[in-house]
Design a protein that fits this description.
299 residues, 13 helices, 80% helix
């Protein structure tokens, strides 16, 4: 396997795993919209610099503007609103485990929208992942599972972000076949960031900026430079050198990174039930991805 690609994809996954912790730290000082607006303002600047250096800096055509605007709203504005607001009450570790279910929702969308067959193997993987999510969210409390009173409000917002990202991923496929990844991501992120701007000013979030301490600024800078800027670039660079299925395997590291970092930086306990639920999620997602990869190789 290509060593530079391995290094890049590992970097991306590690910083994405740490993003949950950085967001939780920043949320101690400012509102979710303040974090989103500053974070993606920084991310747009980083992506623009790389796109210019690679001579991929170009404005989208008027015909494609609506398409990129839709992606920007789904993948940046709404997605980050769900996650940032979810992390107000959700634990960073719980959120990271939940996010790994995205491939499951992509498989379900393919069945609902594209008439793709699920098959018993994929259904089994979906069931395992679902049980895993229930264990993680309920922290293994069986009584809470039976009476329906389990999980924080934030857990459900984060869970909603998984099918939302699945929709974004499916809708993005057409554009990634046509445009360089850096150029497309810059257009999508810039439009998504612009959509957050009216909310940023309407909620007078600018009044919170002077409340940020050094720790808060470092957390948001980490999110902007590394998570919204460099990680996306390195992820798509890796996709040019190795297959999507090979790159996707590295995503299994993300919740593990989040769990370890949250234990050290946020004093979140690593529960046996969370690890068991996380293992079920990863096995279920692996089954869904494996069957999808096998189907693609046979087509």
């Amino acid at each position: 396997m290509n060593l530079p690609a391995i290094i890049k994809v590992t970097f991306a996954v590690v910083v994405w795993g740490a993003s949950f912790i950085a967001t939780k730290i920043a949320l101690r000082e400012v509102a979710p919209m303040t974090i989103i607006w500053i974070r993606f303002g920084i991310g747009v600047a980083i992506l623009a610099a790389f796109a210019a250096a690679r001579r991929e800096l170009a404005l989208p055509s008027f015909r494609e503007l609506g398409y990129f605007a839709l992606l920007g709203f789904i993948g940046i504005t709404f997605h980050q609103w769900l996650q940032a607001n979810g992390l107000v009450t959700a634990q960073a570790t719980t959120a990271a485990w939940i996010i790994t279910t995205t491939p499951v929702f992509i498989a379900i969308l393919g069945w609902l929208m594209l008439n793709e067959r699920l098959g018993w193997s994929r259904v089994g993987g979906i069931v395992l992942a679902t049980i895993g999510v229930l264990l993680v969210v309920s922290h293994g409390d069986v009584r809470a599972l039976t009476n329906g009173h389990f999980g924080a409000r934030g857990d459900f917002l984060v869970l909603l972000s998984s099918p939302n990202w699945a929709i974004f991923s499916v809708v993005s496929r057409r554009g990634l076949k046509k445009y360089p990844a850096t150029q497309m991501m810059l257009s999508v992120m810039a439009l998504g960031w612009l959509f957050t701007t009216p909310f940023f000013f309407a909620e007078k979030c600018f009044n919170e900026i002077d409340q940020l301490t050094f720790s808060g600024w470092m957390s948001i800078a980490f999110l902007g430079v590394f998570c919204s800027g460099l990680a996306y670039i390195f992820w798509y660079d890796a996709l040019k050198s190795i297959t999507a299925s090979q790159v996707g395997v590295f995503l299994y590291l993300e919740p593990l990174v989040a769990a370890v970092a949250a234990a050290f930086l946020l004093d979140e306990k690593i529960l046996a039930t969370s690890l068991a639920g996380g293992a079920l999620i990863l096995v279920g997602v692996w089954i869904v991805n494996r069957v999808t990869a096998d189907k693609s190789s046979n087509d």
